[in-house]
Design brief:
alpha+beta; six-stranded antiparallel beta sheet; 2 helices
Length: 99
């Protein structure tokens, strides 16, 4: 299972990513940059309407790290609403200095 390591109030670190991948599937890549990738994921045994957001941080000269956004994405939210919330959380994440 995921052993959370609090990054800040918005993300928890996934310490065993291989185990995490066994229980989750990638539904859609929603944003990619040279520093990070954001993916919409869901549990393999959970319905699509209860998606989660995965942040894969791949900074130069640093081992990649994975974080799970603490908020769920439901089917009622528009893509613009979801992206605004994610962008705000990302700004805070990188301003506070990722580990």
């Amino acid at each position: 299972m995921v052993s959370p390591n609090e990054k800040d109030s918005e993300f928890i670190q996934i310490t065993d990513f291989e185990e995490f991948e066994e229980t989750h599937q990638i539904d859609k890549v929603i944003k990619t940059s040279s520093l990070y990738t954001i993916k919409l994921i869901s549990g393999k045994n959970t319905p699509d309407f209860c998606r989660e957001v995965l942040l894969l941080e791949h900074l130069p000269a640093k081992k990649s790290e994975a974080y799970l956004w603490v908020h769920k994405v439901n089917s009622d939210a528009t893509q613009i609403e979801v992206m605004r919330k994610i962008n705000t959380a990302l700004e805070s994440f990188f301003e506070n200095g990722s580990k």
